[in-house]
Specification:
Rossmann fold, 2 domains, globular
């Protein structure tokens, strides 16, 4: 490692919030701090996916704390209303609070932002102007393209405005990181950004925290999951996941008393899914709310096979992070998604599971039966997946690669 760097990280989500974005960003921040860098995260006050907000965060607009060696500055504008309104409003206010938090922080050597929301790129640009330091745009999802694909964003004017902001943020950043080659091609070929400016930094998984655990554990016993072949899904129940096809597969397999679908998570589609299960009178599908990060490894361990799904409208080459979690936990992956994305390529390269096309309940049911009847194949998928992430996608490796990118960028500045 070279010199100690002062790194300012900006994120809309951060623990104790529950979710991929919060976990990824905390792991990255802590990984950089563990390597001797001075890390300050600017974020908001937690609420997302929390049953109750810890008392120390309530009724406050600004605070500083330290989490695992990471300095955290929390600043937020009050946002009220139902979850959907708070999410939308937060996308708009988070960049402004991040900018103010960055101004109130010690001048860093570099700024790294997590996008989405897309507007966080504007916070990075403004801090670049006011503090005179380069900013890196860490792109996880291609916004606004994913909203366009799902039919949520239809206004041509709004699409042009958001695509203009997207290209502006890409152009003003000093470096762009993406988690797969397909995302890089999109930014370079579709958005016209210089190829040298875009670096592929695959997502990571803490392979010490997410590790193989016994199938028979306290969580599985508490929820009565032992003695059955459990098809598990843990994550967001959103519009892009196409989870209704999973319910349809459960209907096809409803006579198989030895197979159970266990869906853990929350999202805007959950009510529809629960209602469809109730309509069909299915006894082989159970739902559980989103679980804390500390419980998540046991959720995954309690499944015999892990589901990863995307609907047919997803055209961006996204790689859902739950694939890495399943691999790290040594659980076979059963994915249903567009086959031309980067996720199926990863599953094939790692040899960790099976991938079929999106929203195909019959094929999904067929593959579930195949895996339930072939424990030896499941074990081989599990072994390969674990070995692959330890070798290729560990947190330690990702932090080292980002550190090298930053060092090279600063050396060229």
């Amino acid at each position: 490692m070279g010199r100690c760097l002062k790194i300012l990280l900006l994120s809309r989500y951060f623990p104790p919030e529950i979710g991929t974005a919060a976990n990824l960003f905390y792991e990255l921040a802590k990984g950089l701090a563990d390597r001797g860098h001075s890390v300050n995260v600017v974020t908001g006050f937690p609420w997302y996916n929390l049953k109750t907000v810890p008392g120390k965060y309530r009724g406050r607009l600004f605070m500083k704390e330290n989490m695992g060696g990471v300095d955290v500055t929390r600043l937020a504008f009050p946002v009220f209303g139902p979850k959907k309104i708070k999410l939308a409003a937060g996308h708009m206010t988070a960049p402004f609070s991040s900018f103010l938090g960055g101004l109130l922080s010690e001048r860093p050597d570099v700024i790294f932002i997590y996008s989405p929301p897309l507007f966080m790129g504007l916070a990075g640009w403004l801090l670049n102007l006011f503090r005179g330091v380069p900013f890196i745009m860490g792109v996880q999802d291609l916004h606004p393209q994913c909203y366009i694909d799902q039919g949520v964003l239809k206004s041509r004017l709004m699409i042009r405005v958001l695509e203009g902001i997207e290209k502006f943020c890409y152009g003003k950043s000093s470096l762009i990181t993406v988690h797969s080659g397909g995302n890089k091609r999109h930014i370079v070929e579709v958005k016209g950004i210089d190829e040298k400016k875009v670096k592929v930094l695959p997502n990571w998984i803490d392979t010490d925290e997410m590790r193989p655990l016994p199938r028979d554990n306290e969580f599985s016993r508490r929820h009565g999951l032992n003695g059955k072949f459990v098809v598990g899904y843990a994550g967001t129940l959103g519009m892009s996941q196409g989870l209704m096809s999973v319910v349809e597969s459960a209907r096809i397999l409803k006579e198989r008393d030895d197979i159970e679908f266990f869906i853990v998570g929350d999202g805007i589609e959950k009510e529809k899914l629960v209602e469809r299960v109730r309509e069909y009178g299915l006894g082989n599908v159970r739902f559980l709310e989103m679980q804390p990060k500390s419980v998540y490894p046991y959720v995954v361990a309690s499944s015999d096979v892990g589901l990863v799904t995307l609907n047919s409208r997803v055209r961006t080459p996204v790689v859902p992070s739950k694939i890495l979690s399943l691999m790290a936990a040594a659980r076979p992956v059963l994915a249903s998604m567009p086959l031309d994305g980067d996720a199926p390529k990863l599953i094939e390269k790692a040899g960790c599971g099976i991938c079929i096309g999106p929203e195909d309940p019959e094929s999904l049911a067929e593959k579930i039966l195949f895996l339930s009847d072939n424990p030896g194949i499941c074990a081989e998928f599990a072994r390969r997946g674990r070995e692959f992430v330890v070798r290729e996608m560990s947190l330690k490796r990702a932090v080292g690669e980002l550190e090298a990118c930053i060092t090279d960028m600063l050396g060229e500045a």
